[in-house]
């Protein structure tokens, strides 16, 4: 018998952290977690996917804020 393991993509982790941040009234912990994932993974992220799903999830403002807060490469 094999064990199953669910793994979240960095994009989905960012989106869910932004959503949780908003649902919790602006949680800096979740926002900073999302920012950290973005900064560590930005070279491989699918930005089209992130932009599309940020709109679908209603977190475009947080997504824009994250992009503005990210440390430049």
Tell me about this structure.
The chain is mainly α and 73 residues long. The chain has one domain (10-69). The chain is built from 4 helices and no strands. It has helices spanning 10-23, 28-41, 47-57, 60-69. It is globular, with a radius of gyration of 13 Å. 23% of the residues are buried. The model has no long low-confidence stretch (mean pLDDT 96).
Which stretches of 5+ consecutive residues score pLDDT under 50? none
Distance between the termini: 45 Å
Domain module count: 1
What would you call the structural class?
mainly alpha
- Shape, principal axes of CA atoms: globular
Overall helicity = 55-70%
Compute the average pLDDT.
96
Strand content: under 5%
Output the helix-strand order: HHHH
Q: How many β-strands, per DSSP?
A: 0
Largest beta-sheet details? none
Number of helices: 4
The whole-angstrom Rg is 13 Å
In brief:
The protein is an all-alpha fold and 73 residues long. It has helices spanning 10-23, 28-41, 47-57, 60-69. The protein has one domain.
Provide keyphrases for this structure.
73 residues, mainly alpha
Task: Give the arrangement of secondary structure elements.
Elements: H1 10-23, H2 28-41, H3 47-57, H4 60-69
């Amino acid at each position: 018998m094999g064990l199953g393991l669910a793994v979240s993509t960095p994009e989905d982790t960012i989106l869910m952290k932004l959503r949780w941040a908003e649902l919790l009234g602006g949680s800096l912990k979740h926002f900073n977690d999302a920012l950290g994932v973005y900064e560590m993974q930005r070279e491989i992220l699918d930005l089209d996917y992130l932009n599309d799903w940020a709109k679908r999830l209603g977190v475009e403002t947080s997504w824009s804020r994250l992009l503005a807060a990210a440390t430049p490469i």
